Amino acid sequence: MKESGKKYKYTLINYITMLDIKLESSNDFSFADSSTRLFFTIRISGRKENVHQQKGITGNWLIIVIDQSSSMVGEKLETAKQAAISAINELNPGNYVSIYSFSDEVEVVADHTSLNDVKRLENGIREITAHGRTALFKTMDFIINKARPYAEDAGSVTLIMLTDGQPTDVTDIHRYESIAGMAAEYGIKINSIGIGSDYNEEIIKKISDITNGEFYNIVDRSQIGTIFGSYVQQLNKTVATSAVMSLNLREGTDFKSYDQNFIQQGNQYLLNIGMISDIPFLITGQVVVPPGKEGIVNVMNISIDYKDENGSSKSESIEFKITRTNDSKKIFSGTRQDIINAARVKMNVEKFEYLTSVGDITGATKAIGEARKAAEATKNIKLIESTRKLENIVSSTPTGKVDKKQIYNETSRIKKKGD
């Protein structure tokens, strides 16, 4: 398999209706006589004029889940409660909110409630007190099943879950993978926040990864309000809901994403995006184009089905086309190195994350070194700083007892936000 790569920009932009869909490939040529690996990035966001012209689509469902076990007593719980109160006050009317707390059992503070009586919601949140243990599995199973009918009916669901302790009911990660898979199938995105040093980062990060949510390791309690607020801002600037991306690949084409969890159905790959706002949603990955006749080839159809501000179903699509050729000069002169470097950062960060999780620190050190080199080639300061930070973490722990919480916080941000 040959790989293409050096100063060519291939961009497709869709300006139809509500969305900007931008595809950039590392080349618009591939070898006719052998397989060719091409890297790509896709950025999806609401068109700026649409975001500015409206206050945001309503009818979205924000679910906030707060651990109220005994270990949360004091400032941790009070900060989480205040963050939830601020979130419901900032969320645009017309959306829905659920507030759940959990210890030995799940407590329903508010269930799919409109924002008509914010004071009642505030009072319910303030009444949350710390007690009991951490029945995480029971809680997630209950909430996912509650949200499932709404999500099945094409409603966008954003869930924020905060915890500080080890699960006291179920510790088998495979059972969490199972319920997270069900959530992902229906587009329920779970964003996990771990606070303190005692929570199980492997479990809550796995839940977020499978549902294409984000994972946060909180050291400073003030970050909780910032994180809650960032999701409210996205909801308030939503231009499309219930968005599902479909990638239809040409027969024989291999596909891999470095940052999103797609569901494969034959040559089709599906991704529940949920809401789309002015903040770009990123997909970075690779396709391996098989050899064949010279000429133009449609490698992949990219389509997004969604609902607009009126609840009407819409669909937008673009095509990823390349040209097969036997002219190697065209290929090597047409390579775009910036796309390759950005993809290699995520590719090696994903590898680093996996090797760290299985305890292969030697392999992880090598992978993050490659990620750092690629980051330096991008000249993206945030990426350089993040990869260097990860390199320092593993190099300073020769015993292999690395801080996975800190590592996963950095790798999650790089994969989901590109920095």
Key traits:
12 helices; single chain; 38% helix; alpha/beta; 419 residues; six-stranded mixed β-sheet; globular
Rg result: 22 Å
- Helix share of residues? 25-40%
As a percent range, the share of strand residues is: 25-35%
Overall outline: globular
How many helices? The count is: 12
* Largest sheet properties: 6 strands, mixed
- Summing up helix and strand content along with how strands pair, one would put the structural category as alpha/beta
**Kindly, what is the distance between the CA atoms of the first and last residues, rounded to a whole number of angstroms?**
30 Å
Rounded mean pLDDT score: 91
**How would you spell out the order of helices and strands?**
EEEEEHEHEEHHEHEHEHEEEEEEEHHHHH
Low-pLDDT stretches: 5-16
| Strands, total number | 18
Short description:
It is built from twelve helices and 18 strands. With 419 residues, it is an alpha/beta fold. The strands form three sheets. Strands 1, 2, 3, 5, 13 and 16 form a six-stranded mixed sheet that branches.
Draw up the topology in text.
Elements: E1 2-3, E2 10-14, E3 19-25, E4 29-31, E5 36-46, H1 48-53, E6 61-67, H2 75-90, E7 96-102, E8 106-114, H3 118-126, H4 136-152, E9 157-163, H5 173-185, E10 188-195, H6 201-210, E11 215-218, H7 223-236, E12 240-249, E13 254-257, E14 263-265, E15 268-276, E16 281-289, E17 295-307, E18 313-325, H8 328-333, H9 337-357, H10 361-378, H11 381-395, H12 404-417
Parallel strand pairs: 1-5, 4-18, 6-7, 6-9, 9-10, 10-11
Antiparallel strand pairs: 2-3, 3-5, 5-16, 7-8, 12-15, 12-17, 13-16, 14-15, 17-18
Helix pairs in contact: 2-3, 2-7, 4-5, 5-6, 9-10, 9-12, 10-11, 11-12
